[in-house]
Design goal:
Pfam families: MazG. With about 350 residues, the protein is α/β, with parallel strands linked by helices. About 50% of the residues lie in helices and about 5% in strands.
């Protein structure tokens, strides 16, 4: 047997890792078995959130930060030592163990990495909430922001997201989705401070979960929907019932871009089965209204179509100027010094 190979009597080291995004005490069964069978349990962080629960379950945890050599020595005689890893994952300890194993002069114990808890999908959102909490308290800029002051950034980030989608840039899409998500979390954090009607990001998430379930009875209930049109029709009926609307035009924001507004009105009327002739009048506005309604009836988003045509026109202008085809949009960000996103 090689001098550095694990063997009988060399013992065992179990490095137990946990996620801070999972409630303390919720460990896997293999983790609890390892803890109960251990001859010694060590943790370098006396404030580790798992310690009270481990001790409550009967585990004797020593608050110690052994060196690699000390840990190897503690395994002598076939002993098993469990190390409850800190949030950093014990890099100094694992590096030291690797150096000892590579030296060939030390009889190494068995080494096992045992994940004791796992992140669920969406768990990193908890990190975002925690970071936002701290920024709101400690950052001179963020601590002074209001819903009204941030409103323009919400609009800008939404447009930048649409631009990333239309450009097909996956990296940019990921970043812009993050910026939009930041706006949601930021506004939710500000809302917690309202003196009369506060709400939190959990209230926001809980509300949209309830809404999605209610508006998808073909997924969570007994109703059937065979086509996207069936789903959309039910969605609009449910919204009208929830909000007690008397008109299909209610809830359409009139401040949105004109082409999008015209297409939305045409879509609502068509979906509701209303045959409403377009108003006739002089001027480009009525012409654009007719074009937007025509585009919507064929499944074309007029805003998207116009932006695509405008980009083509921009490229033609740049060619006429003798400018290369590099997209100038990412060259600078006039709001970079204001917007933390």
């Amino acid at each position: 047997m090689n001098a550095s190979s694990p063997g009988a009597g060399s013992g065992r080291i179990v490095l137990l890792t946990t996620s801070h995004r999972v409630a303390p005490g919720l460990l896997s069964w293999p983790a609890w078995e390892a803890l109960r069978a251990a001859d010694a349990v060590l943790c370098a962080d006396g404030a580790h959130p798992q310690l009270p629960y481990l001790r409550e379950a009967g585990a004797e945890v020593s608050e110690a930060a052994p060196t690699a050599q000390e840990l190897v020595d503690a395994c002598a005689g076939g002993r098993t030592v469990v190390v409850v890893a800190t949030g950093e994952g014990e890099p100094a300890l694992t590096d030291g163990l690797a150096r000892l194993a590579g030296s060939g002069r030390v009889r190494m114990p068995e080494l096992e990495l045992l994940p004791a808890s796992y992140d669920l999908p969406g768990a990193r959102l908890l990190d975002l909430v925690q970071v936002m909490d701290r920024i709101r308290v400690e950052c001179p800029w963020s601590s002074r922001q209001t819903h009204e002051g941030l409103a323009k950034y919400g609009i800008e980030e939404a447009y930048e997201l649409v631009e990333a989608i239309e450009a097909g840039d996956r990296e940019e899409l990921r970043e812009e989705l993050g910026d939009v998500l930041l706006q949601v979390v930021f506004h939710s954090r500000i809302a917690e401070e309202h003196p009369e009607t506060p709400f939190s990001v959990d209230d926001v998430a809980g509300g949209i979960v309830a809404k999605l379930i209610h508006r998808h009875p073909h997924v969570f209930g007994d109703e059937a929907a065979e086509t996207p049109e069936d789903v959309k029709a039910h969605w609009l009926r449910t919204k009208a019932e929830e909000k007690r609307r008397t008109s299909v035009t209610e809830g359409i924001p009139l401040g949105q871009p004109g082409l999008a507004l015209a297409a939305k009105l045409a879509s609502r009327a068509r979906t509701a089965g209303l045959d409403v002739p377009l108003p006739e009048g002089d001027g480009i506005g009525y012409t654009l209204l007719a074009l937007a309604a025509q585009a919507e009836s064929t499944g074309t988003d007029p805003e998207t179509a116009l932006r695509a045509a405008a980009r083509t026109y921009r490229d033609a202008i740049r060619r006429a100027e003798g400018v290369d085809g590099t997209d100038p949009d990412g060259a600078s960000d006039e709001n970079e010094d204001e917007d933390e996103g």
